[in-house]
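Appendix B. Extra example for self-study. Work through it before the problem class; the solution is given directly after the inputs so you can check yourself.
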Amino acid sequence: MQRYEQIEPMEPIIGPGQTYATITERISSIPLTDLRQTPRGWLVGFAISFSFLMLFLISILWLFARGTGIWGLNIPVAWGFAIINFVWWIGIGHAGTLISAVLLLFQQSWRNSINRFAEAMTLFAVACAGLFPILHLGRPWLFYWLIPYPNTLGMWPQFRSPLAWDVFAISTYATVSLLFWLVGLIPDFAILRDRAAGKLQRQIFGLLSLGWRSSSRHWHRYEMAYLILAALSTPLVVSVHSIVSLDFAVSQLPGWHVTIFPPYFVAGAVFSGFAMVLTLTIPIRKWYNLEDFITMKHLDNMAKVMLVTGSIVFYGYLMELFYGWYSASAFEQFMVLNRMIGPYAPFFWALIVCNGIIPQLLWFKFFRQNIPFLFVFSIIVNIGMWLERFVIVVISLHREFLPSSWDMYTPTFWDWSLYIGSFGLFFTLLFLFIRFLPMINIFEMSMLQFSENEKAHGREARRVQLAGDTPEPAEMA
Amino acid sequence: MTMQSQEERVDLSEIRTRLAGATGQQYWRSLEEVAETKEFQEFLHREFPSGASEWDNSFSRRTFLKVMGASLALAGLTACRYQPVERIAPYVNAPEQIVPGLPLFYTSVATSRGYAQGVVVESHTGRPTFISGNPEHPASLGAVDVFTQAEILTMYDPERSRQVLNNGDKSNWDAFVADITPQLAELRRARGAGLHILTQTVTSPTLASQFRALQSAYPEAQWHQYEPVGRDNVRAGAQLAFGEYVDTLYHFDQAQVILALDSDFLFAVPGNVRYARDFSTGRRVRRDNLESNRLYVVESTPSITGAIADHRQPLRASEIERLTRVVARRLGVSGVSDTELPPGMPAEWLEALVEDLQQHRGTSVVVVGDNQPPIVHALVHAINQQLDNVGTTLSYIDPVEAHPVNQLESLQALTTALQSGQVGMLVMFGGNPVYDAPSDLNFADALARVGTSVHLSLFVDETSARSTWHIPAAHFLEAWGDARAFDGTASVIQPLIEPLYGGKSAHELVATLMGQIEVSGYDIVRNFWRSRGLGGRDFDTFWHTALSKGVIEGTTAAPKQVTLQIAEFPDTVTALPADELEILFQPDPSVWDGRFANNGWLQELPKPLTKLTWDNAALIGVATAERLRLQNGDVVELRTQGRTLRVPVWIAPGHVDEAVTVYLGYGRERAGAVGTGQGVNVYRLRTSDNLWITSGQLRRTASRYQLVSTQDHSSMEGREIVVSGTLAQFRSNPEHPPFFHGEHEHLSLYPDYPYDGPRSWGMVIDLSTCIGCNACVLACQAENNIPVVGKGQVANAREMHWLRIDRYYSGELDNPRIYFQPMACVHCEKAPCELVCPVAATIHDDEGVNNMVYNRCVGTRYCSNNCPYKVRRFNFLQYTDLESETLKLQRNPNVTVRNRGVMEKCTYCIQRISAARIEGEKANQPVLKDGDVITACQAACPTQAIIFGNLNNADSEVNRLKAEPLNYGVLEELNTRPRTTYLARVTNPNPSIEPEMPADGHHGTETIPNPAIEHEMPADGHHGTE
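Solution. Structure tokens for the complete assembly:
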């Protein structure tokens, strides 16, 4: 296992002056803080998130009581916010998997400080995303008919439908993401168990750490399991959003039936996911004084990833327009024109500005390392990626083959409340996470510190045995 | 606790004392508790009644098991005991003819607009559920219009009147009889002076004879008639021309050239369904029939007749007279002074028209609208005589009405009598004069001066509310009666059900006025026909034949010889005052004069041209809108003769300029929950001197009103949706008409299903004969239990109609060509919807029908997104009314009632296919023939433009039509392989007016799609906003 020796960071990925002890102390103190000493800021943030979660629940209650007619849906626009939000949240989830799995395999150790957080974000985003396809059903209580199970109806799902593929893609993704996250937490649970002051805390973390004792054998198996899970997750990064894109591409609707959708959706997903990671980490590293762990190097790297994926996405937009023209089909050509100069044209141009033009600023280091800019930029990209799905879903549907059925889609209060409410679910889970679990991987940070130290002392890092590299938790205490 | 008698008895006085002695609130469970009896103490102590909680120690384990076993067995036995104690009777003496599950069909006639339209009513175990046309009836020939079909919903309307009302208070029939009997006796002594009767147009021979009998009993009684959409001008025109009242019958099937002058003869006149059928027979262009009639329409307001015309010219209604004079003079009618052609009428157009008419002597016909003044009618009579059309394309008969009068004068006479206080008793049979009388008559005030007013009506409406007595009327499906059709043919109205709400028929009310209290409607009608001596001695056979056929033989009016009596045609043309617009009153295509206002089906039915629902708007032309800078939904104020009305405008391409059309029938104050408050009451502007055409000022206001249309976009965007061409083009190459563009490749990844069973279904819709009348839309709604969703939901494009009629315009805005295209599920063989449903809720059967399995649908709506025709409808909310009991009775028991969250769409009337399939298999004739399955839309279509049948039967009509060169599938290039295809619309323009077009036809003149300028609606997208 050579992975800590191969990178030569230009800038430190851990701030100066950090030792094993300070790393462990700094990170583990947050979850171990006594409940009564919960920071006021956290309480305020949690309360706000929780109230939005309540809005979410009320919106769902009203939805179940009345039906999807509370939204602005109609015929022809039979899909609206629910599907837009679904794709948007799923996309956001992708950054987490990419950071933790793909970068792990590529041995990008700078990822260590943000992977835990990104994985948690993935999970919570998938939780939000997973609800929308069920909520958007006309009869949500029958959602399980999409799952193949032996039943007295003698019916299976209709496997030619991409919606049936979605079920597998998303459930697999959610399961693997959860396992990956939990497995990665085990050594840290053990650290928290060992440092916990209260009995209850000790018991809970003891239970969660599954008897972790940091033996070499544990570390060996852990590493193997983690790698396997990473290898399993990696294709999911590509497959999930590819399949989500097929929800559209399999249809014959101009604006949906596009062959470049799978790669373009995956790039868009990573793009939006990194945007959300930036949106979340920039304030959190400030509030919790984690600048030493999430350094400028991280922000710069993430910005570079966004530049690449953003450019792919922009290329996708241009290709869509090109295909529309090149198809020589009147319907496709109309779709392109309708995007550009139809009634929803402002949304399209906003999308081009948000996702096409502004990301080009990241070619310049000045912008990549300008934290206020990055924060604003990440929000612009989040909006842009939401607009992208709006453009695809609504603008394609509202005017298609027969002009007699053309109509407009106007979201209602309940469309917005469910969308905004889903932030409540996301942030409530996120606040609980940063308060009760180590949001940065303690042991991986310690390893990173070790390899940094090695370099700092100009010595060759020779030791390859993982277990030996890792300081025992007791030593750090 | 009956055992207490043997035990300790409760001492009541003791209890009283105890309770009296207690302080605070005392709760006691029983008298025993208060008395603190020993038993009660024990009862409390034990918790369970005696014996239940005692454990007999002598029980061994074995005994215990035995007892348990026995208990269980006994418990099982008790479960068998629950049989109803009530006696139930086996179905030994089943009612004759009724087979549960199989419907029965009865003939009757509907008289929605006065004249009879033959119907066949479907009845399921005693509940009528569906009205279709009677093929034997001359006014129907199997088809029906929307009003007649919607009557079934009116009958079950839960808001129909259920109660006799006396000055608004609940009363009953006996009280009514007791109240009027002495009054009638007094009136009889006065020879009937002071007794007035008000009816609508009466075509019922029985009712007429009853009125005559009434008039002999009360010689000075007055019979008034008033119909707000009346035919006074028609009658006066005939009087002017021939010196007597005659009705004109048209034979459009004999006509090769038709000129309609402001006449919507396909919709607005008695006999319209028959006329549509006759008209369409001359337009069935096929490979082997390269002939078509030619229709010229000059009209003010775009109508369905104008839409199907080969040549249409907008002209203000007041200038029709001038045009008619020119035409008459050019054709050589004597006594017509020289007149200039009205401005806007192209001279070459008129030249060509006159020449065409002259070339078709005896095979042409000129028709004129009911709203045109009498002189125009007289002129047209003269023109038709001049063209030798009488006897071939039209004929005259004695009036069908029992008592033809000038109805306006009749109502004016009544109002005068009322105001002078001469009316002791006014009995109103139907009608709603308080709402629909000309506003200058102030009928409501006049009515207040009557001694006793009686109003027989289906609803407690505006007039009922101001009458002394309101009597709930029986619906025509509930009571015996009779009526005559537009050509005089009489039919008996058969009831199918006992009056749901205890209503009375007009016959019964007249009998009551005559003092015949206990006479049934059945006897009245039957006795009338018996007295006519029809059928000879075997009256029963005659009666039975009349009922089962729906037509009384030998009652059709014979053609009448009339001679023109008029020598001079005085000029009554008046110029439109400067700075005024022409205001035209028209009956509404959905609610007529307001009588159908509470019918949800009709309210939600998109009006044929504007596609508006739930409202009436003031229609204006495009140029007028531009000049006044008006947009759809802008509220304007109309002012005429000091009366003002605020009404939202709607821009109707093809509407004549400097004119505004307003529709009657809306703004009801007491119509019921569906109709009250919808739209604007135009009657407030309508006065007796100008019932149809007046002029006034239009002023825009700052406010806006939400008008709701089901189709926001009317251009075909240059797409091949409605393919059309001219007859000349078709003749030039009948095998490959030049207006079609190329063939489409049909490749598929999936193998083709052979469909080699005995049946495989398909449909063809002939766009040359579709007149856009909506009959199919309503038939589909009635047959398939399609719910009404309300204005708010329609505003968000959630109407549920499985079958819609798309209306497109092409060409110039001021006079566009208008196209109709009925669009329902086309049952694609490669259905995009089926591929994307994750639960297989929409699937093909082996007969090629794309079925929707409601129970399986989870509501992803992906099928609708992937449907290029957008014909799938989704229950976004709970649209079906599951509460109203009577509405449940109306529903078709063979069609699933859908609830929220489920997709639905056209099934090709799968329930009818199923029934026919079973019958066919039983008869060992599995290959079904034409006529075995007739879909609801097909049956209702007056022009037989919809043909459905078995593609696996080589002889079927649908197979023949699919082989026609005009046959094409909409969006065929998507390789959906639709099973519903269309026959391209072939028009027959006069080559001297319309030079031959280039070979690519004229489906949509726009070739460059420009979404930016194609907003027809305000930017929020919906049909105008508040």
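Self-check: The CA atoms of residues 267 and 652 of chain B lie 18 Å apart. If your reasoning did not lead you there, revisit section 3.
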